[in-house]
Design goal:
The structure holds 2 protein chains of 2 kinds. By secondary structure, chain A is an alpha+beta fold. Chain A is built from 22 helices and 21 strands. In chain B, strands 1, 2, 3, 4, 5, 6, 7, 8, 9 and 10 form a 10-stranded mixed β-sheet that branches. The chains are: A alpha+beta, B alpha+beta.
């Protein structure tokens, strides 16, 4: 039976998550004061669609929740409110979240419907679960009847295009179907009809009334009738599907296929790089043939441009902005404000930052936990804040940005921050291993240890049995990292760093100790070939003169090579520096030689490779040899931590 | 006949000669095809069904730091693949490879044994004197050392490498 088809189920779930996003947006727009009626219509349509699908796939709990919410929305619509109360808004949001959670877990047993706000007196009909067949009529209509008969479905819906509205209403109302929904914005259909009776005889009656359509494609039949009467002013089409095309047509493509296109683009990019390398190697022999060289180089440029375009477009297909997830966080904050009575200003920055859609989906829960944690344990109550000279309302800022080959998401609050001594004390009480804690920062990071929780009481907001360790693990499973900065009395900053996955970057190839490495060119401010005497020493530290100032200089040869080997190296008076920037920090990185700038496909470090912080990715050079892409940010971080002074014996141990 | 092909044929002939059946009258179901190899004076064996391929050594790019058990990265037909050191799984020893060795891997007739993972996480190990062998199923049951032709071989298991490196992360 097609309802059991796994692919169809996946498609339904995917579509449902998209629909839920639409519902979240509609709810957000209502909150921002936009047309309530339009927002409620959008919500109703979305929930109604989910209800239909969940019935098809026997997701009973989802169906019941959606049904209950749909009824509630219908009553709200009929009362034509000019605005929603906070209670109403919060109820709708909570129910949508529950539906989403159920669909995500596919567990239909563990979530109960909430009571609707009492002032609405919404009755949750306890009707037996009915399987619903939902179909756009331009699909196979014969199949509709076939399944209808085979499954004895007691209800159905039809979507009717604008052009057929009047005719359809006339026929369908005669057989007892009510038009319950009009869609003003969607180009593909105008009215939604529904018959929800349980009387099979009535269904048979409807079918018999419509049976005259069975022998022909019923869209064409309707259209022909209407065109003949001059009621339709557009040219009839032979394909019903074509007739409903909208200006912004969407095509759902499995991620796997997009990834395959990307793989092919990267493969082509590598091949074109190798071709350029071959050309360069044989240039002395080929340069006599000027015409050939010119034609080849021109083709090479065009080919690279096209490959980069394919890569960029395929990448963009996988990406989505963090806008929706930020919106959701805003709702979380608003909901918490209502529950706890804490007034919180919520600010966002970088909503248009794009991340891999899969990463965004998986990031939702960790972010919700961090935001809830900030509200529950970070932000103080208004009186306490006032007592400490702060604004009565707290603030939480969510910020997203891309730097180098990483994306960052920051959650900053202006709450009470954390005291290392208190964290350490609590960790000991909880039996967390504190033997390796030597610094305040290490004490603070104990909050990421399993079993640690600073909450004295379990709160309804953040104390739900999911610790910060689970949040950290979730982020790490995405290949990212979670860090924290905090200051007692001033607030905390949680920073999530995520790899951007594979992409084509412009890279600078450098040589250190006879091995080649790559830097992302974006981070490079300047490169220069210099004498080693241009590097000024002060004890173990090196400095380079840049723009009138001495900036710290880090020698990668010292850092990368075992000390014993380093002493065997011949002294070379020539060296090169790359001045690099990461955030506010500018550092000169000393290398043996700067070789060339080239495009590289930056790939994540293979799973079974060592955890070396300064490795930002790997790639293949034009020659086909692998190359490690160095992370400028990490090099600067390591340098500022003092790791570069005195060689690298520790790392080799 | 070109040199590379000649060498391959020669190796194949050598492999056929060296194939041996340990024990006597083993049933077909009891035979485990395996490889033996050595590295720095230590002899290992691994199950052939865990091996994807054996190649001549490819240019190895070292990591910025030498880290226990890790040697570097190779380009295996367009896929950047880590090369790990089999000595690490057995004794947790750190084997340093200096720059000269990286240049001489080819001259010293090293091979790369590529292990394939279902999740796509292939890895390679550096090895010398790679030989195809056969041994009995019972020898592999929970053993860390296998006796072949009166010589003890340490058992190298794909899973050991995965678990050690994943734990290290």
């Amino acid at each position: 039976m097609f309802f059991e088809d796994a692919e169809l189920l996946e498609e339904f779930l995917e579509e449902s998550f998209d629909t839920i996003e639409v519902c979240h947006r509609a709810l957000e727009e209502i909150f921002q004061g936009q047309d309530v009626s339009e927002g409620l219509n959008a919500l109703f349509r979305g929930i109604h669609t989910i209800k239909g699908g969940s019935g098809m796939f026997a997701f009973e709990k989802t169906h019941q929740l959606a049904h209950s919410l749909e009824n509630y929305l219908e009553r709200l619509k009929s009362s034509a409110p000019s605005a929603l109360s906070e209670e109403q808004w919060f109820y709708i949001q909570t129910e949508i979240d529950k539906i989403e959670k159920l669909l995500k877990s596919r567990d239909q047993e563990n979530i109960e419907a909430s009571s609707a706000p009492s002032d609405q007196h919404v009755s949750d009909e306890k009707s037996p679960m009915k399987t619903k067949l939902f179909i756009d009529f331009y699909h196979d209509f014969d199949q509709l009847f076939e399944d209808f008969n085979a499954r004895e479905l007691p209800q159905f819906e039809l979507r009717i295009p604008k052009s057929l509205k009047e005719k359809a209403i006339e026929i369908l109302e005669k057989v007892g179907c009510d038009c319950i929904q009009e869609n003003k914005s969607d180009q593909t259909w105008d009215c939604l009809f529904i018959y929800e009776g349980s009387d099979i005889k009535q269904v048979d009656h409807i079918l018999s009334k419509m049976s005259f359509l069975e022998e022909v494609n019923w869209i064409e039949r309707f259209e022909k009738d209407l065109v003949d009467k001059g009621a339709v002013d557009r040219t009839p089409t032979s394909s019903p599907a074509v007739s409903v095309a909208s200006p912004t047509e969407m095509l759902r493509v499995p991620l796997e296929r997009v990834n395959q296109v990307l793989d092919n683009a990267w493969e082509m990019f590598l091949l074109s790089n190798q071709m350029s390398y071959l050309l360069e190697v044989h240039r002395p022999e080929l340069k006599k043939n000027v015409a050939f060289m010119q034609a080849f180089e021109s083709l090479e440029i065009q080919m690279k441009r096209n490959i980069e375009e394919i890569e960029s477009r395929a990448m963009s297909m996988r990406m989505s902005t963090v806008h929706n997830i930020f919106n959701r966080m805003e709702k979380v904050v608003r909901g918490h404000s209502q529950e706890s009575g804490k007034s919180i200003d919520f600010m966002t920055d970088g909503e248009h930052t794009e991340l891999d859609k899969k990463v965004i989906d998986m990031l939702s829960d960790p972010l919700i936990h961090l935001v809830r944690n900030a509200m529950d344990h970070g932000i103080e109550d208004a009186d306490t804040r006032e007592m400490h000279g702060k604004k009565r309302s707290g603030s939480i800022e969510l910020k997203a940005y891309v730097h180098g080959n990483s994306a960052f998401i920051e959650i900053r609050d202006d709450g009470k921050g954390m005291r290392p001594e208190k964290i350490l004390e609590l960790a000991k009480e909880k039996g967390v291993d504190v033997s390796e804690v030597e610094t305040d920062q290490q004490a603070i990071e104990l909050i990421f240890k399993p079993g640690f929780s600073t909450a004295q009481e379990v709160s309804s907001v953040s104390g739900r049995g999911v610790g910060m360790d689970a949040v950290k693990t979730s982020v790490e499973e995405l290949g990212g990292s979670l860090s924290i900065e905090t200051k007692e009395g001033e607030g905390s900053l949680f920073k999530i760093e995520l790899p951007m996955g594979m992409s084509v970057i412009q890279a600078l190839i450098v040589r250190v100790n006879n091995f080649l490495y790559a830097f992302n060119s974006e981070a490079i401010l300047k490169t220069e070939k210099i004498s080693i005497f241009d590097i000024k020493k002060n004890g173990d530290e090196e400095f380079y003169h840049y723009n009138g100032d001495y900036i710290p200089c880090v020698g990668l040869d010292k850092f990368f090579v075992d000390g014993d080997l380093e002493r065997q190296r011949p002294i070379n008076t020539e060296t090169s520096v790359c001045v690099v920037r990461a955030g506010e920090d500018i550092v000169a990185v000393r290398v043996d030689e700067v070789l060339q700038s080239t495009g590289l496909v930056a790939k994540p470090v293979p799973v079974l490779s060592p955890s070396i912080e300064v490795m930002g990715g790997v790639s293949l050079l034009q020659s086909g040899d692998p190359v490690v892409i160095l992370s400028v940010e990490k090099i600067i971080q390591e340098f500022l931590k003092g790791s570069f002074i005195g060689g690298s014996h520790e790392r080799c141990a | 006949m070109n040199g590379a092909l000649k060498e391959t044929l020669h190796e194949q002939a050598a492999l056929r000669e060296e194939e041996q059946l340990e024990g006597e009258e083993l049933e077909l179901a009891e035979i485990i095809p395996s490889l033996t190899f050595s590295l720095r004076g230590q002899d290992f064996t691994c199950r052939l069904d865990e091996v994807k391929e054996v190649t001549e050594v490819l240019p190895i790019t070292p990591y910025p730091f030498q880290v226990k058990g890790h040697i570097g990265l190779v380009n295996l037909r367009g896929k950047v693949t880590p090369v790990v050191c089999p000595l690490f799984t057995e004794e947790q020893v750190f084997v340093a490879y200096d720059e000269t060795e990286f240049e001489n891997f080819n001259q010293n007739k090293y091979r790369l044994i590529i292990f394939h993972e279902e999740d796509g996480e292939d890895f390679a190990i550096l090895a010398q004197e790679v030989t195809k062998r056969r041994s009995s199923f019972s020898q592999w049951q929970g053993q860390d050392i296998i006796n072949m032709s009166g010589h003890p071989y340490k058992v190298f298991r794909r899973e050991d490498v995965k678990s050690i490196y994943k734990e290290a992360k």
